Amino acid sequence: MAHIIVVGNEKGGSGKSTTSMHVATALARMGHRVGALDLDVRQRSFGRYLENRMAYLKRKGLDLPTPILGTLGEGSDPLSPAMEALEPDCDFILLDCPGSHTRLSQIAHTLADTLVTPMNDSFIDFDLLARMSPEGKVLGPSIYAEMVWAARQMRAEAGAGPIDWLVLRNRLGTQQMHNKRKVGTALTALSKRIGFRVAPGFSERVIFRELFPRGLTLLDLRDIGTQNLSMSNIAARQELRDLVAELGLPGVSVDF
Predict the structure, then answer these.
(1) Does 254 reside within a domain?
(2) Which residue from 98, 144, 154, 235 could staple onto 40, CB 3.0 to 4.6 Å apart?
(3) What SUPFAM superfamilies does the database record attribute to this sequence (predicted)?
(4) Crossing angle of helices 16-29/231-247, nearest 10°?
């Protein structure tokens, strides 16, 4: 059985597609067989990222490890046939969910062995996880956390294993330390209450926007002739290494 990784958050602009691409490609580069599905049928940022990669590699005559991009089926259940097609050939299948509430996203969360929720480090994104009083007190879970709770219940009723839920703090700023501490304190309190782990994600870096048109990741730069990486690129590679290690995926030893 393939291990299912779901990258989800009901808010756009949190870095889901960047996270999905880098995690999936990192696993492929480590020798694992990785399948990928983009469940955002309108924007398809993750799917476009992978298509850009395949086109660039073909144009340049390069052979770099690449996740297998699956295709959603048709009808009332487009996800099941897509999963069935990928599973025999994959150790991991990564599902990138849209930044909105959809039926496909709901189903995907019930399949998650590992759930990754990238969020911008602000109380605007925090509001999807929990409701807060004006004084900063956590009042209870919000819409996205309630959806994850429902997915956990469905998995328990079906006899499936628990969901390992990791919340990533993306775009952690070097300034505004007071706000960063407040968000961190609130996340730590909420994590104990509703059951997720918290880890640093990716900082805001220009390199991520530059890589998308070619379908490349931070780990591909030396393969395309970039020998002298900037300090920012080296720091970003370390963030990716830390993220993959924090996921604690079965059979994965971080060696890049």
Answers:
(1) no
(2) 98
(3) P-loop containing nucleoside triphosphate hydrolases
(4) 80
Two structure tokens written together for 214:
């070619």
pLDDT digits (tens, 9 = 90+) for 210-247: 999 999 999 999 888 876 788 888 888 999 999 999 99
Distance CA 16, CA 35 (A): 16
Query: In this structure, what CATH number is given to the domain that contains residue 79?
Result: 3.40.50.300
Question: Domain range for residue 190?
Answer: 3-247
Quote the DSSP letter at residue 223.
G
pLDDT digits (tens, 9 = 90+) for 117-159: 999 888 888 888 988 888 777 788 899 999 999 999 999 999 9
Measured distance CA(163)–CA(160) in Å, rounded: 9
Please state which of the ranges 90-99, 156-165, 181-190 shows the lowest mean pLDDT.
Answer: 181-190
Residue 253 lies in a domain: no
Number of domains in the chain: 1
Query: What's the chain's Rg over C-alpha atoms?
Result: 18
Q: What is the spatial distance between Cα 198 and Cα 184, in angstroms, rounded to a whole number?
A: 9
Which three-class secondary structure state does DSSP give residue 252? coil
Would residue 21 count as lying in a domain?
A: yes
For the chain, how many helices (H) and strands (E)?
9, 9
Q: Which of 47, 5, 54 is nearest to 166 (CA)?
A: 5
Reduced to 3 states, what is the DSSP secondary structure of residue 91?
coil
